[in-house]
Every structure is written in structure tokens, then in C-alpha cells.
Amino acid sequence: MSRRALILAGFVLLLAALGLTGCKRNETHRKLIAIIVPSQDNPFFQAEAVAAAARARALGYDVRIDAHNDDAYTQDNLIDVAIASNASALILDNAGTDASMSAVRRATRAGIACFLIDREIGASNIAKAQIIADNDGGAQLLGKRFAEAMGGKGNYAELLGRESDTNAQVRTKGFHAVLDQLPQLVRVSAQSANWSQSEAFQRTETILQAHSDLNGIIAGNDTMALGAVAAVKNARIGTIKIVGFDGSPDALAAIRTGTLDATILQPAVKIAEMAVDEADRFLKTGTTGMPERQLVPCELVTRQNVDEFGVFERIKPAKARE
What is the pTM of this model? Predict the structure, then answer.
């Protein structure tokens, strides 16, 4: 018997044992919403999980939160557990489009309504909804801001996310839809730092040694941007414009101090709450009332508007600007 089968069998036996402990439990049973995110340590994914769980509990559901750590095998096991525990809905930030289609299909066939957030899959009519941030639009916004901060010219480096992550590919494509139109902006280096701050620090150190005339760094997420900020500070180099993507609390703090020029807010809280609201609507009416694929706009965050944002969400209305 495979490891996954042993885990599932043990879990089913546990559920059966619990079910025998009292008949009254079924009378007060609340529907379960399973929430699976890549990590509960990363602030972005933690914000997703916390927001989704809070909204689900407020709507009267039981909740369980798990993390697959970007491992498709772990994700498969967690979806098997959701099936065995009779989850009514699944809120999933998946472990990669290719690796996740069969897992989402399996959950759907088992009667679980699946709602994907942050990362989509390359198939339709399996999940009830795929609610994602407009990474392309956000990347183009950031590209324009970066070009303005650079004065439309100079040498820059790009720190890319994990190559297998669709969002990394979409963001770099969005950056270059803008930056490649400006011939005086020259990309002298492009390296993957795998979304990691420590890897970004090391990559930036190497880039700075090879390119003493570097003017800017554009990073595929805030974690890498902050690694670049630390490397530039360590090298005692000023006047390098650095931008990130996600709108993390640490990035907002760096924008306030001027060490980071800008970021793009990915509205993780809004997306997670939308997914739970649509799951609730589907479970009660049989329809979400919305198209399957839904793009949620991203927002540019700079020193001028940074106080309008909180933990991966807008907390104040936008001020009118001249």
C-alpha cells in the first residue's frame, strides 16, 4: 500500500471512530471549508489563509487550514484528506498549474466545490472559480513606475521568481511589455532568485560586482526586492532604484524609509474573501453568479500613497491627486 493510501486510510478510520462517539454530533454538524495555501510562514500566503478562514467562520462554516509548501505530492495528500473529511468547499492556492489539474479534478469529482486563488490552472470547467490578481496589469504598472524612476535610461538588473511558477512568467512578460519599448533602458542581468530573500541578496551581490554602473533593479516579488535592498546597503551603494511586487508589510516599511521605490499590491485579503463568499453562494444556491475566471486589479504603492495600505489590502480610500 502506498504512503498516501496509508495516510488516507488512517484518517478515514479516525473519522469513523469520531463518528461513533455521539449521534448528536451529526445533528449540529456544520459544513467544512478546507483552505490549502503554499505556506503559513510566508506573510502573503498567511494573509490569504487568515482572511479566508475569518470570512468562512463568520458565515458559519468549520475551517481547516493546511499548507502544501509548493509540493504537489503534499497537495495531493491534503486534498485526499479534504475528501475523506467530507469538505463542502476547497479554497486552494495551488502548487503549480500542471501539477494541480488532476488534484482539483479529483476533488471536484468527489463533490467538493473548488475555488482557486492567486494561481490559476490551465483548464476550465473543473473549479467553480479561479480568482487571481491581474499580474500582467500590475507588472505593466510597475514597469512604468520603474522606467519613470530611472528617468527612462540606464542599466538595470531583473530578479525573477521561481521558473515553474506561472506568476513569475506573467510578471516578467508584463515588465518587458513596457521596458523593452525604451531602448535607453538596458537589462544587463536577469537571474532567478526563486522568490527567496537570501538568494536575492547573493544574486545582487554578484550582479553589483559585475556591473558597477548599475542604476536599477526590478524584482518579481517583494521578498527578492528586499534582498536586493540589503545587498545594495551592504555594498554601500546609493542611487540604485529598486522595486518589488506583492505589497508586503516589510515592503511598505521600506518604501516609507525610501530604500524601496515602489511595489505592487496584490490584494490577497480581497481575493480570499471573494472566494469564500462565492463558495458560500454556490453551496446555498448552486451557482456563484460569476464567471469562472476573475481578474482582480493590482495597485501601485509609492511613498505618496503607502499609508493607504495595510497587510495585503487597501485600508483607506484613495486620495485625489493632482
Answer: 0.86
